[in-house]
Design goal:
Keywords: Endonuclease, Hydrolase, Nuclease
Number of strands: 4
Protein name: HNH endonuclease
Structural class: mainly alpha
Radius of gyration: 23 Å
GO molecular function, one term: endonuclease activity
Number of domains: 2
Largest sheet: 2 strands, antiparallel
Distance between the termini: 29 Å
């Protein structure tokens, strides 16, 4: 997961813009009068996220029978998302905060939508709250295994609050050399708390990152096989290891926890692979 800066605007700014051209004047007035409640919900989210107690936020809280969940969800889907609405610029600003355009949750696919950290249908007061909106790919947005946490350990990582980029934690293993089989996993640093270790593991599993990264690793190996086989045949094990080491170090400078970084480290660390036993592999 990649750390990104929080949006530079709050829910009051976004909400006011969303309802500014609402035709139903009575509903618009009620929503305007409820801005303090919406703002308190944002403050509650921030306070509880700072202490990993987001699971304590009450679900299914509405403003009133008229300003209910359906209305609040539509403010997101029909106003914030709507490209013809002036509020759309806040949606776009959040989306464009994705590092290099990539989803910060999987650190691989293109960010093409916004994900509600807490789902809008269960937490309607947070429907357009900027700190509850994360740039994401459609797969991570729709495919995560846990919709909302029931305890601190189940809280997936949040790009605005969590930073795990300073330690190397993503591990790739070569389980078999010929045919080659990869496995990705979390190797938690000793400096992490037990809670963080559990949360990173749950994030990794919830977004099915092993499956995603293995697919890319197999493709990468197929792309480089001719080259590294030639290196081994011309210079032996040491030349191959030097090349793999350079590939690892080069990618580590950019992102120490990318699937590519872990991939090249796994190849370098595997003696069976570096002795050339991958040659003849069908991939």
């Amino acid at each position: 997961m990649r750390k990104i800066e929080r949006p530079g605007f709050n829910v009051r700014t976004v909400f006011e813009q969303c309802i500014s051209n609402m035709a139903n004047q009575e509903l618009r007035t009620e929503l305007t009068d409820s801005l303090d409640k919406i703002e308190r919900s944002e403050e509650d989210f921030n306070e509880k996220k700072e202490t990993n107690e987001i699971y304590l936020i009450k679900r299914n809280v509405e403003i009133s029978e008229t300003a209910n969940t359906d209305v609040l969800v539509k403010i997101y889907t029909e106003r914030l998302v709507n490209k013809k609405n002036n509020a759309r610029r806040y949606y776009d600003q959040i989306l464009l905060s994705a590092p290099k355009g990539k989803c910060p949750l999987c650190n691989q696919r293109i960010a093409d939508t916004l994900d509600h950290y807490l789902p809008k249908t269960l937490y309607p007061l947070l429907s357009v709250t900027p700190i509850n909106l994360i740039p994401a790919c459609s797969v991570c947005n729709k495919g995560k295994l846990i919709d909302y946490p029931l305890n601190s350990e189940q809280e997936s990582l949040h790009p605005y609050y969590d930073n795990i980029e300073n330690e190397e934690w993503l591990k790739c293993e070569v389980l078999e050399v010929n045919p080659i089989i990869f496995k990705y996993s979390v190797q938690s640093p000793d400096c992490w708390s037990e809670l963080l270790k559990e949360r990173v593991m749950n994030h990794f599993n919830s977004f099915k990152l092993n499956t995603l990264y293995v697919i890319h690793a197999i493709e990468e190996f197929a792309n480089i096989k001719f080259q590294i086989e030639k290196l081994f045949n011309n210079g032996g094990q040491q030349l191959l290891k030097d090349h793999l080491s350079d590939c690892y170090e080069s990618r580590k400078i950019i992102d120490r926890n990318s699937w590519q970084t872990a991939f090249y480290k796994a190849l370098f660390d595997n003696d069976d692979f570096c002795r050339g036993n991958f040659i003849g592999n069908s991939y």
